[in-house]
Amino acid sequence: MMRLKFNTTEFKEILVVGAVMLGILLPARMAFISIIGNSWLGSFGVVSAVAISILYLAKKNKLGWFGKAFMHQMLKINKSKRRYLIYPNIAFAIVFTSFVIYGIEMGDTIYKQEQEDLLSQIPQDQQNMEGIMKESGKVKPTDFIIAIFVIFYTMFFRFDIFSVLVSTLNSVSNQFLAHLATIMLVEQLELAGILIFFKLGIKKATT
Question: Residue 13 sits in which domain range?
Fold first, then answer.
């Protein structure tokens, strides 16, 4: 019974901390963008500032149960086996989104002609988000597996093809891919910074 209660408490902490952080950090960035301008890169540091403020208040015991739960989960991330899952995932997300952003830039410049050649082969009614979503519903699960393999193979071994593919997809999605990749890159960089900041804080506190 005690073990079941512990697992339930752990799950509750993860759920509440995750929901609260999402409910605070995303609106904070959106509010900054609405005031300063429509630039996710321009809002870099906003989430870090809010998260570090929460971390400071939690360490000062100003946030009650949530503060304790937050500190416990941050400690678990840095001390438990969970870090072997979280840190590689963050590193992978940073690398992948960086490749996508750079690939789009290269496709829009160096490989512009190849991008236009590929774009000309796509039916006009599929050159928008509605067309993409409609066609994606016809794709078989095995096709998704093949597509994932092609994406990663071209990303590392045929970057020219990768650039043409992602830049074309970005074009037909009305720049949505570049926007999404930028959001993800900024979020992951800030998450990594928050975790490193917390880890250094733990070391400083124990020395």
Answer: 2-80
